[in-house]
Amino acid sequence: MPSDPTILAFDTSAAHCAAALLRGDQIVATRSEPMTRGQAERLMPLLEELLTQASETWQSLDAIGVGIGPGNFTGIRISVSAARGLALGLGVPAVGVSGFEALSELAQPDQIPAIPAPREQVYIQTKNAPPRLVARNEADSLGPLYLCDQPDMQVSAIARLTARRWTTTRTLPAPLYVRPADAAPSRDVPPVLLDE
Question: Among 18, 50, 60, 182, which residue's CB has the most CB atoms within a 10 Å radius?
Fold first, then answer.
């Protein structure tokens, strides 16, 4: 087990595609691009560019860190699927880090980590309570909020948390969904299948 692990972390849980590379205890490269769609097509090329920028290869990675949400359903699925696939293909562990955990690394002790959500809402997780989706004004009444609008800072926190956990994590990353999906299954009656 290396004393200075090389960890690639990435996150597409919001309107961005962000990645960070940690070597030992130093973030050696970050990249973040705002985008409301297209993360599935952009993620792997962005990771390749980041590795090239830092003079690293896929084979030099010791672990993968990934943001598991809450946030955009499709974005979360993209990141988590990519992390699980890379971990399997490279034979390295993948560590899921929630947005709340990453923001807690950046916030002051008295601040409540909050993640923007649609319709003037935020995702929050207060001490000893499950994550929830609340109106922004309700969240403001709970105390000072910490919202991060810099994806490179958040993905760097994901990398640092992964560095602390990669040798002990035994479960694969899984999406953290706080609310049900906006999309619903079709109400049309499925076609009848005929036996031949």
Answer: 18
